[in-house]
Amino acid sequence: MTTAIELRHLRHFIALAQELHFGRAAQRCHISQPPFSVSIRQLEQALGFALVERSTHEVRLTAAGAAYYEEALKVASQFERAHATAARVHQGMQGTLEVGFFASMLHRGLDRAVQVFGQSHPDVDLRLVELSTADQIPALQRHRIRYGFVHSTALPATVMSEELLCEPFVLCLPAAHPMARAAPKTGRRRAQAVDLARFKDEPFVLFARTFSPAYYDHVVSLCLSAGFHPRVRHEARHWLTVLACVSKGLGITLVPRSLVRSRYPDLCFADLQASPVASIVRGAWLASEADDPALRAWHAVVRRYITA
In this predicted model, what pLDDT tens digit does every residue of 188-217 receive, in sequence order? Predict the structure, then answer.
């Protein structure tokens, strides 16, 4: 007989158990008292036993009614949770959001963006996936990630993007370098910028072009504008590896200004006298997912917290 029980029966009974008055319970359920009373009788008939004892003066729960009330509350609560969960999934505000990133983004506010998004959207499981800059677009197209950070503006028609930041390159030297004193550190204390041409005979440590063509070409362009082609002695896959190599005296390099925040030991950073080439970072996502609520919410947070 329990198959005849509907959710409305449970809701009506819960209201009656809490009000212990048919009139007030019916009003609470937004129906008149006669159909409300019919609903309670239908529930009792389906169960095969009485849930309430009625008299002209009061309504009381039977022992079975009290026990049924506790379980009915659980069922109603579970139903509400199921509805809320399904609604969030339908709205795109629950599930997993994979975001591709490269290490230098952690010095541009990515950590803060992740924290803020997690606090405001706790039902979305945001996961960072470390990828080289060259791998971001293929990862988007293969649905390995849903959001990426790219440097190129030459993107496939299936990918949308928006510029997040534009920052100059700065010179990075080992602190023990003989010319480090001639290259005052960047930071809050502004100092006279250095002439990159003075470092034309230095060995360079660069991001491997295979993993970031844009960064490699930017550095070469800056050197060419200073009148020389860099002597690339060592190549690395990650910016933090480049900084580590420079700190060990293996060469010098040019890096986006945000990497000054890396606080890597034994390094000196200096502005350049002329820096016509800038490091541009764009947020990217598939055009087919442009209206996804979770993706849009993440991009809004990124726009606020990603800074040079």
Answer: 333 468 899 999 999 999 988 887 787 888
